[in-house]
Design goal:
Elements lengths: L1 E8 L7 H9 L4 E7 L9 H12 L6 E5 L1 H8 L5 H9 L3 E6 L11 H9 L5 E6 L4 H9 L5 E4 L22 E3 L8 H11 L5 E6 L12 H17 L6
Parallel strand pairs: 1-2, 1-8, 2-3, 3-4, 4-5, 5-6, 6-7, 7-8
Length: about 240
């Protein structure tokens, strides 16, 4: 069993880009997740230029993910890659992952063929899609196509609620991760829950955001440091992390 990636999400224009990168350099399996949408990261916005600055400062070893929300997630599923996203992907290969944060019922059900075509046009990036009660039937249909994607278990879908029990992996041959209520205070307990359901030869990732925020409502680098440290200590202590 191997914990192979820890994503700290929610970095934005209120986050010191250089200090964030310096922190993540200490944990080469860490990933920076950035929330983007049409009202937050349009051309000329503070967030768009902050992402540009972050990527310009980052080393080749950095791992950065764009999390597409709201209108951008829906537009992407309709086959229209936002021009801002296209520009960032074209200029910065270190943006290795795109997470599509659509929820069926809140957003309309994507057309499977259209979504597949759009993902294939994204410069060979990895994709993460949420597996939950609203999305699971569609995710199974996508899996049946043979297209490889990463699967994120998050029943609370961004609400930051930790489940009483973590779900066992659904698919035998794709990379699967866990989110929902993860924090510096409970990460060891939650990793122990995950360990109970992961096969001995399995590999997984974790993603936290809401409980990494400070009193100002923005990402706290101190909380990120605690989260990364405690997750890493757990991994080494239990002999499940292999760099």
């Amino acid at each position: 069993m191997r914990l192979s990636k820890i994503t700290v999400s929610g970095a934005n224009e209120f986050t010191d880009a250089q200090n964030l990168l310096s922190l993540c350099e200490k944990y080469p399996f860490s990933e920076i997740g950035i929330q983007v949408s049409g009202d937050k990261a349009y051309f000329g916005s503070a967030r768009y230029w902050w992402i540009w600055a972050l990527c310009s400062l980052a080393s080749r070893q950095a791992q950065i993910a764009l999390h597409l929300n709201k209108d951008w997630a829906e537009k992407f599923c309709d086959g229209k890659i936002p021009s801002e996203v296209q520009n960032l992907l074209h200029n910065f290969p270190i943006i290795k992952t795109i997470q599509l944060n659509f929820k069926i019922g809140r957003e309309k059900t994507p057309d499977l063929d259209t979504l597949l075509d759009t993902m294939k046009r994204c410069y060979s990036r990895h994709f993460i899609l949420s597996y939950n009660e609203s999305n699971k039937d569609f995710i199974h249909q996508l899996y049946q196509t043979g297209f490889k994607f990463d699967c994120l278990f998050d029943d609370s879908f961004g609400e930051g609620i930790a489940p009483a029990k973590r779900l066992a992996p659904i698919f035998p041959d794709i990379y699967q991760g866990y989110a929902g209520g993860l924090s510096p205070d409970n990460i060891v307990e939650e990793l122990n829950k995950i360990r109970q359901v992961i096969p001995s030869d399995g590999e997984f990732f974790i993603d936290a955001e809401g409980k990494l925020k400070g009193e100002d409502g923005h990402l706290s680098l101190e909380k990120c440091k605690q989260f990364l440290e405690r997750a890493t200590e757990w991994a080494y202590r239990d002999s499940v992390f292999n760099p």
